[in-house]
Design a protein that fits this description.
168 residues, mainly beta, Jelly Rolls, eight-stranded antiparallel β-sheet, six-stranded antiparallel β-sheet, globular
Length: 168
């Protein structure tokens, strides 16, 4: 469990909860080991407090230097992919509207990521969203995050993580 002025990250009842107070904040929880290379993962993300462009999702291929990809869902029904490298963010896939992401809260979505080599495919509630080819990061740890963008509280529960190894 971790607490700060911005909020808290806590594990209990088979789920990890990120709770952000009424501030523009970004909180995450990362597991650097084991290192995953080629895999398919799924996790359930259930925001209970969120609105508009507040976002939540999965961090993957996380390196020891905190370079990673961030698969984001927004609370107004959009998805995107960011790459954070050397502390700088870029968006291989900018925000796009998704009919598979329920807007607002409370809601629940099953996020899926197929990452094999430099190709990555993204799913929400078993619906394909987009694919990206990017050779920069090909292995790493996993994590989850939530971000408040409108000065209001955000709470997201993450559960039922499964990771399957995929052969090329």
């Amino acid at each position: 469990m971790s607490h700060s002025e911005q909020g808290s990250v806590a594990y209990g009842n088979d789920e990890l909860t990120i709770a952000i107070g009424e501030t523009d904040a970004y909180l995450y929880s990362i597991r650097e080991n084991p290192i995953f290379t080629n895999y398919y993962l799924e996790i359930t993300a259930a925001p209970s407090l969120c609105r508009e462009l507040d976002e939540y999702g999965v961090l993957f291929r996380v390196s020891q230097t905190l370079d990673y990809y961030r698969f984001s869902l927004s609370c107004n029904g959009q998805v995107r992919l960011d790459r954070i490298s050397g502390g700088q963010a870029s968006s291989p896939q900018p925000w796009i509207l998704s009919g598979a992401v329920p807007p607002g809260a409370p809601s629940s979505s099953r996020l899926g990521i197929l990452a094999v080599g430099s190709e990555m495919k993204f799913y929400v509630n078993e619906h394909f969203q987009f694919s990206v080819v990017d050779p920069l990061l090909t292995a790493g740890g996993l994590g989850v995050f939530a971000r408040s963008t409108n000065g209001m509280a955000v709470t997201v529960n993450f559960s039922n993580l499964v990771v399957f190894e995929v052969t090329q």
